[in-house]
Design brief:
The structure is a single chain. The chain is α/β, with parallel strands linked by helices and 308 residues long. It has 3 domains: 94 residues, Winged helix-like DNA-binding domain superfamily/Winged helix DNA-binding domain (Arc Repressor Mutant, subunit A), CATH 1.10.10; 102 residues, D-Maltodextrin-Binding Protein, domain 2 (3-Layer(aba) Sandwich), CATH 3.40.190.10; 99 residues, Periplasmic binding protein-like II (D-Maltodextrin-Binding Protein, domain 2, 3-Layer(aba) Sandwich), CATH 3.40.190. It is built from 11 helices and 13 strands. The chain has a 5-stranded mixed beta sheet with strand order 4-3-5-13-6. The chain has a 4-stranded mixed beta sheet with strand order 8-12-7-11. It has a two-stranded antiparallel ribbon with strand order 1-2. Helix 2 packs across helix 4, helix 2 packs across helix 5 and helix 3 crosses helix 4. It is rod-shaped and about 105 Å long.
Length: 308
């Protein structure tokens, strides 16, 4: 039995020669092989002769009536077919990646912007199920660097945190409001006047985790001439909710987060008499090296922000 080194076959500079060989071997007909490869019969014949010269072996036995694979041709055929199959698979994958219909999309969000991300991902995931979506929480201090380094394709953040950079673009994502949360029974249910909080202990999400939110909350207290009695600051929302549920203090958080974290141990209170709207955006690097980013933004633009 005759064996060929697959690496020797791969060393052919022109992959078309291998395609010509496979076509002739499968059809045992030079004119049909030429038709399948959209070239002339003489081009196929020259290609086979070049392969035979390179390998130092005849691949076909030719007569006026028949074309037959030689033992060397039979030995070569499975290697050649594997090469063509692998090439076709690689070409298909690359084409999908370039069109963004396969691969991975990495979405980042900060501690406060998580609840609405699913609204934007639903349509994208349904349309492009072959794209793997990674969703990762990142620190505010890492958001700009993550975009600059293309570590993340999309980052959700508070609008006031958007970097002042010509390389970064954004799309309005959604508006939220702030709400007071308190241990169940501590405050009267329903809406609340902010000046009712002047004697309450307060726990907050730390400034390092969400500086804009922290400043918005302190500005609320200043508006009502209240010096908040901040008894603790936490680095994650779950700890804030646990502290509130335990009676350590009241807190102020985006309403969507309050609802997402809701349990029977605390109550959510709408703040009356003042606009507490905060706006979130999705951001990306304009270089947009991942084709999937463009596809995501196309689907995201279809989402009605008012319905989010």
């Amino acid at each position: 039995m005759i064996f060929f080194n697959k690496q020797l076959v791969v060393n052919f500079m022109d992959i078309n020669l291998i395609k010509y060989f496979v076509s002739v071997a499968q059809n045992l007909n030079f004119s049909e092989a030429a038709r399948q490869n959209f070239v002339s019969q003489s081009t196929v014949s020259r290609g086979i002769k070049e392969m035979e010269k390179e390998l130092g072996a005849s691949l076909f036995s030719r007569t006026k009536r028949n074309v037959v694979l030689t033992p060397e041709g039979k030995a070569l055929l499975p290697y050649a077919m594997e090469i063509i199959e692998n090439l076709n698979s690689a070409t298909f994958i690359i084409d999908k990646l370039q069109k963004g219909i396969d691969g991975k999309l990495t979405v980042g969000y900060d501690e406060t912007s998580g609840p609405y991300i699913s609204k934007y991902l639903q349509g994208f995931v349904a349309k492009y199920p072959d794209i793997t979506v990674d969703i990762k929480k990142i620190q505010v201090s890492e958001e700009i660097l993550a975009l600059d380094n293309n570590e993340y394709d999309i980052v959700f953040m508070l609008r006031d945190m958007m970097p002042d950079s010509p390389d970064i673009d954004h799309l309005e994502a959604y508006d939220d409001t702030l709400s007071v949360i308190s241990k169940k029974g501590l405050l009267a249910g329903g809406g609340i006047d902010f000046d009712q909080l002047h004697q309450q202990n307060v726990v907050l999400l730390s400034e390092a985790i969400s500086p804009i939110l922290y400043m918005e909350i302190l500005d609320l207290f200043r508006t009502y001439n209240i010096i908040p009695n901040i008894v603790n600051r936490y680095d994650d929302v779950r700890s804030v909710v646990t502290a509130v549920s335990s009676g350590i203090g009241i807190s102020i958080l985006p309403t969507s987060l309050c609802r997402a974290m809701f349990n029977s141990q605390f109550e959510i209170h709408r703040i009356k008499g003042i606009d507490t709207t905060i706006s979130y955006i999705m951001t990306w690097n304009k270089a947009m090296r991942n084709p999937g980013t463009k596809l995501f933004l196309k689907e995201a633009s279809k989402v009605n922000v008012e319905d989010v």
